[in-house]
Structures are given as C-alpha cells and as structure tokens.
Amino acid sequence: MTGRGLHHVTAIATDAVRNLDFYTRVLGLRLVKRTVTHEDPGAYHLIYGQAEGAPGGSLSFFSWSSAAAATERPNGGEHVSFAIAPEAIGWWERRLIASGVSFRRGRAPGGAPQLSFEDPDHAPLTLVASELASGAIWSLPDIPPAFAIRALRGVSLSLRGTALMTRILTDVLGFAEMRREADWIEFSAHGDAGGWFCLHQRNDRQRPRLGAGAIHHVAFRARDEADLATMAEALKERFGISASPVKDRNYFRSIYFRGPDGLLIEIATDGPGFLIDETRENLGTRLIFPPSLQDRQEELLRILPPLDRFR
Length: 311
Description:
By secondary structure, the protein is of the alpha+beta class. The protein contains 5 helices and 16 strands.
C-alpha cells in the first residue's frame, strides 16, 4: 500500500487568542482555517498548516477555556515535530530566547539536532533539523524564508505497548518501520509533510488524562472515500477493530477508532480540502461555520471570543 502519512494532529488549547498569537507570530505558521468544532460549536477549531493548506501538514487546536491541565507526560516521549533547515537551528535558538520561550537542545530519534520546548498550554513541540521535502514555504517579514518552519514533520506518541500500534501503522496506515533505538520505534510513510511517526514505549501507567496541551487525536490520510472504506475493512479483518460510520467534516470525510491506551485515531480523506470556501491567498482570514451550523452563526458569535486583531 502506498504510504499516505499523517493528515493532521489535533491538540487542546485553553485560550484561542493566545494560541493564535504563539503559532502565527512566534513560530510563523500560517492559519489556514478558522472554524468551530462540530460537536462543540461554542469553541474554536484553529488549523495551522502549509502555505497552500495541503493535507498532511496541519496542526490544529480545539480551544476549550475550561480544560484542566493534562496530567504529567513522560519527558520527551510525546511531542509534535516540525522540520526546519539544518542551518536554521542557531537562528531558532535566538528567536526562542527573544520570545521568552525556554527550550532544550538535544537529538531526535535518528540523531538529528532538535530544539524541544512547549507552547503556552505546555503542548510539547520540537524543531528538528531535517531535509524534509516541502511545498511553498510560509514565512513572515521577520522570519527569512531560509529559516522558516518548512512543514509539520510528524508526531511522537508514548504508549505502554507498541506492538499493536506498530502493526496498525504498517499493515493499514501505510508506514514502514525505519529503525529501533532504546525505547523508540521510528516510522516513515514518505519524505514530505506528515510522513514521520514515532512510538515511545512507556514503562509506567496508561496515557495521561486528556487536558490542556495534550494531543486530542491523530489523523491519517486516505485518498478518497473508497480508500477510507478499504482501510476500515482492513482494521476490522486484521485487528477486529470497528471504526465509526463516516462523518462529514466539510473539508474531509472521516472515520474514527480507538487504538492502544485509548488513543483516538482518525482517518480522513484528502478532499475536498480547505479551498472549497476560501482562495489560497485568503486562507484563514475569516471565521467559517460548517454548513450544518449556518443558522446558528449569530448565537455562536456571542459566545466565541473575538479574533479580529489577527485578521
């Protein structure tokens, strides 16, 4: 099966304005879609991605102001990883210091230099020196294109048992195991955005309680709805895992299932994509409600905090 890679990663934030400021101003990512969560439309769903909003390169957040802090995570075992040019490490050290962001220097699984730090909700992030292929690079006036974040590289998850997730990744989701090192297993689907995945073997209790800064779910790519059905069938036949019915998420169609340690996993189609209601030039510039919530716009706008200063 051709490797499809990650579609997106979704985490939890408590303050949408603060989250938007950090990811767009400090990290220089592009906001490619501002919308609301389908099940809780009184909360923002902010999606950061590649310059053209292509699938595979997105990190998104549900903004739940009442979310308690997630319980303690294993040190370095779970994080979202972004790719930067190898020569950009020093530049990002200086930028993080200037922005008041504490960081640690280290090595990613495989040995590449990386910087580890947290967002304002303590979501763990890394910038990894990588030769990752990428499309058009988004950068701000104060971030030279040569140093800008190239794309979402992938995600590392920490589980008590890695055997089942390893088989799901390689047998259904299109990844190939690349290497094992101590408590880490590294996988690759391709050399582009979202093509990297890593599993960390936990030796303690189950996954931390879901909360602010935690990863809510990870989503993997399917070409279309036929591919989605094939993957759902493979999950059932090979692992006895029943996925949810297909859900219409406006920008893609999705199925969901629970993986090891209760991990929520989504498989999402590449299309129709983020360009169905905005142009490439205007991605993320206005709040868009899903069609099913169009008649509730006035009500929801009274609940949602204003984001006008980021327009």
